[in-house]
Amino acid sequence: MRPELNIASPCRGICRIDEPTQLCEGCLRTIDEITRWSRMDSDQKLAVLTACLDRQQIPSKAEASDKSASIADGVPGNASDGCE
After folding, report:
1. How confident is the model at residue 59, as a pLDDT?
2. pTM
3. What is the gyration radius of the CA atoms in the chain, in angstroms?
C-alpha cells in the first residue's frame, strides 16, 4: 500500500455549474466529484484530475472558447468563495 499524497483541490473559486454539461465552470468537476473530494483517497483524486484535464480538451459547445477566455481573465460571474 502506498502512502497517501496531499493532493490540493482543483477549485479555482469560480464555482458555477454549467447546466448543459453539469460541470463546474471553474474546475470542470461534477457535483458528485466536488462533494466527495474531501473523502477521496489519492488514487481517486488523481482520477478526477485526469478526467478534468480530458474535459478541458473537449469544448462542450461553441461558446466554450468565450467562456474560457472570461474564466482565464478572472471574470467570476456568480462565483462563490470556492469549494473543496
Report:
1. 63
2. 0.68
3. 13
Whether the pLDDT of residue 84 is over 90: the answer is no
At residue 24, the 3 state secondary structure works out as: strand
CA-to-CA distance for 42 and 46, rounded, in angstroms?
Answer: 6
Q: In this predicted model, what pLDDT tens digit does every residue of 2-44 receive, in sequence order?
A: 778 899 999 999 999 999 999 999 999 999 999 999 999 999 9
C-alpha dihedral sign at 17, 22, 26, 27: positive
The CA dihedral of 68, 25, 74, 81, to the nearest 10 degrees, is 180
In this structure, the chain runs to a length of 84
Q: Give the span between the Cα atoms of 44 and 15, in whole angstroms.
A: 21
Q: How far apart are the first and last CA of the chain?
A: 26
**78 vs 72: CA distance, rounded Å:** 15
